[in-house]
Write the C-alpha cells for this entry.
Amino acid sequence: MASSISFQLPLILVIPFLFLQINPSHSLACSSQKFSGNRVYDQCNDLPELSSFLHWTYDSSNSSLKIAFVAAPAKTGGWVAWAINPKAPAMLGSQSLIAYEDAGKMTVKTFDVSSYKIAPSKIAYEVSDMEAENADGTFTIFATIALPAKMTKINQVWQVGSAVADGIPAGHAMQKENLNSKGTLDLTMKAQNSSSTSSNSTSSNISNSTKSGVGDSILRNRNGISIFSFFTGILFLFV
C-alpha cells in the first residue's frame, strides 16, 4: 500500500497546479475573468451562445460604454465580433467591432455590416481605445463607444468565424448558436445572479465584475477551498 501511495502522490500534487494555470479568460463565469492593465468593469454577462462573455461599464454622464468582449474564434486563424445594431437585434445593420490576427498581430477594426459583403469602415458610433488580445486562442476586444444621449438599451450581436482572407472576415457558420447570438441589453440594469436561456433576453444572467481586492480574495479563497477539498478526497482514497 505504501508503494501505491508514493506512486500516486506526484500526480496528485501536479494536477492542482495545472488547475491553477488555467487562463482566466477560459473561465465558465464572467465574474472570474481578469484583464490585462488592471482593467475592471461594473457589470458582466455570460452570453447564452458561442461561449462568449461581455463586460461593460456605462457612464450616464457622457453616454459612454466601455466594453470587453471575450470569445474564441471558430478555428485558429478565425475572428470574433461584437456589435450594436441601432434598429434590431440582427446581423444586417450591425455596427461591428471585429478582431482577428493580421500578420501575426492582433487587430480590431470597425465594420458597418449593411450587406453580406463587408469591408473595414466607419460606423455610426465614435469608438476609442480599441484593442484586441489573444490569450491561448481566446480573443478579447476592448473598446469605448460613444452612444447617443439617453440610449440605455442596446441591441447587441456577437459572432465568431473560422477564417480571414486579405483582412476580410469570411462568413460564419449557420448553426443554431450562430443564428441565436443576439439580444437586447439594458445598460442600467443592476447585477443579477440569474441565468438566461433566451438569446433575446441577454440582459439577464448578469453578475458583478469584481471591483475590489476583498472581492478578489473571496473568489480566490472559494476556488482554493474547492480545489483543496477535491484533491484531499482523492488523497484519502489512496491511503
User: Anything to note?
Assistant: The chain has two domains: 1-33+217-239, 35-208. The first strand starts at residue 43 and ends at 46. The chain has a mean pLDDT of 78.
